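Sample intake sheet
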Amino acid sequence: MILPRLYPIIDFSFFAARADPIAAVAEYAEELMSAGVTLLQLRDKSQPEMLHRFLSCARELRRVTGDRAMLMVNDRVDLCLAAEADGCHLGQDDLSPMAARRIFDAVQDGKNRIIGYSTHNLDQLREAHTFPADYVAIGPVFATSSKMNPDPVVGVEGVRQAREVTRKPLVAIGGITRQNCRQVIDSGADSVAVISDLLESPAKAVADFLRVLG
């Protein structure tokens, strides 16, 4: 698959305190897409037990994105299917890509769903290269505050080494901003996943990223 250079992740925890957090997420997604975003991921690691909230938000994002942008759901294959999303991004402690692919293949709805898979070091990346994942992520590239107990920083050198290990599309994640995204792409990443640096003035931030990323 061909990934867009910019891969925004919408973290529900940043909107949870709003009066209507799901509406706030939908409005934010609209701003991102209007500025040129074509792929979104929804994640909610703050309260994983609140599945109904996560599913309601995913379904609302599916309604908003329609055919304008691909929608990925973080961690949960079941909620991905329930929301009719385009794919699921899995972590090291989630359902395996092999199991997810079997589930997706068993759902005969005409959709070829995408599987993304997170890695945090070269050993995990080498293993992931053999998995039925459509793309792999490497990170955190830089220090990040958007995830509790993050894995050790890999740096741009880690991205460069990751590119040598796999030919799968490569997403870099973790502390990526408009100031450092170009060096991440120049190190071999196909796409940069961004959370925090899009939250303030989303339309301007997307325009800045797209200009820098080329």
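Comment: The longest helix spans residues 51-65. The longest strand covers residues 6-11.
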